[in-house]
Amino acid sequence: MRKIAILGYGTVGKGVYKIIKEKFENSENTEEKIIVKKVLLKENKKPQEEIKNVFTYDYEEILGDKEIDTIVEVTGAMEEGHTYIKKALSMGKNIISTNKALVAKHLEEYINLAEKNKVSFLFEGAVGGAIPILRELRSLKKINEITKIEGVLNGTGNYILDRMTEKNLDYSQSLKNAQDLGYAEKDPSDDVLGFDGGRKLVLLISLSKSLVKEEDIEIFGIEKIKKEDIERAKAKNLKIRHIAYSEFRENSYVAILEPCLIDEKNDFYNLEDAKNLVKIYGKYFEELSIKGKGAGMFPTANAVLQDLLSLGQENYTLDTGALENKNENFQGIYYLRVPGSCKIDLELADKIDMENGYIFIKTKKLIRKNSLKSWKD
Questions:
Q1: pTM for this entry
Q2: How far apart are CA 177 and CA 308, in angstroms?
Q3: Would residue 200 show up in a list of annotated catalytic residues for this protein?
Q4: Active site residue: 38, 93, 200, 239, which one?
């Protein structure tokens, strides 16, 4: 039997609590039995009825409870979350976190602290929602050299693009729908600007090859995609998807997250709703693809429970050998929409159209960083 504490009672915290109450609290299998002994709330938040007997405002109460051996951190907070995780690991308690911003920033520190204190630090829910990608990656890495990663890593962003495509909604309508469904936060910046997907790519690269940081990922968001872009893509039987890409060659790598135009032969073409799809390539296998829902209460809560059930089996390790970032050499063909008054470099253009006050450009193959940086805004 395992007794745990949950830090935070938002969407994911509620999902974790609900699954444990329904599935594990009364389990006859004592090895799988899980009891939520405490739920930490912010001081200004009133407890909901179902947690009135287990809530606390005092984190020290949780740390001092010797029966609680595992803490599930789902606060989404940066400074407080960092303090919670460090204190718990230092005091010999396992940590399971879904806080991708925090994990991406302090990954090495947390893994080292867990190793030092002989506990586990797990974070499957910080990457793929319901997709068990980190467990698969850890297993694959034992045999294979990982050569490439690509994926749609943000379920909220995929939902927005899918609704714009399939329901002919504009960006603001699709975003509001995502917020109404609980996929997007009131402030959706992390999702639509690409920070969320970028942090997930940081974790995938760090566990696949070597430690990287958020600033090593070149990120373009989806916030400037308009209905005109979607309609032009559909006219050519293309779709726009927000795709993360990283490829490894000897001691170097590229890491890019940007909206891409894809055709029906691409595996991401039919990825619908708030789903994620991650593809891993390795030396001794051609490709492994894993798909599942990447946003919402229960997909992430499911990942937390998977981590809870795997505690004590195996921890993550990092290779801190240096990899050279080669983003500045990355080449591609790009679609651009710029105001009709914008001056453009005709040397970059393969095809140019004008419509509704915009210039639509298909570029030649070019080095993206040099040619597109001035057009990013």
A1: 0.92
A2: 32
A3: yes
A4: 200
